[in-house]
């Protein structure tokens, strides 16, 4: 049975490792579908290093907004919720589920926890971002299945080294 608990730094390494495992299948597809210069610009030292650094920053600097899914004593997922009171909006900033625990309702439970956190803070909507590439298609489908509506956004990059 999955239990949701507040983040404790003792989970840090396990959460970083399961995050890398969860995104392992996504990044090769992303690399093949985006401009090479953009991929190289974002992932100078490789995607694993960038993701580990970015996620460690969230875990270390925003612990009050993090909830962890446990299966017994083992972390199997986590969510980071940010609040944007200026827009009365909560943001599911990071959501990760261990590959061995995917498609078992862990993500939905974490999302509901994030929604409750935002509602308790007086937010009236919540948003989540993900990639438009094929590797992120399962995430988009999951978000849409629980009522998220896609906002049309386009982000462009230009190589200035030419």
Automatic annotation (TrEMBL):
**What molecular functions are annotated in GO for this chain?**
acyltransferase activity, transferring groups other than amino-acyl groups
State the superkingdom. Bacteria
UniProt domain N-acetyltransferase: residue ranges: 2-162
Q: Does the keyword Transferase apply?
A: yes
Q: Which UniProt keywords apply?
A: Acyltransferase, Transferase
Q: Which Gene3D superfamilies match?
A: 3.40.630.30
**Protein name stated in the entry:** GNAT family N-acetyltransferase
**Protein species of origin:** Aeromicrobium senzhongii
Taxonomic lineage of this organism?
Answer: Bacteria, Bacillati, Actinomycetota, Actinomycetes, Propionibacteriales
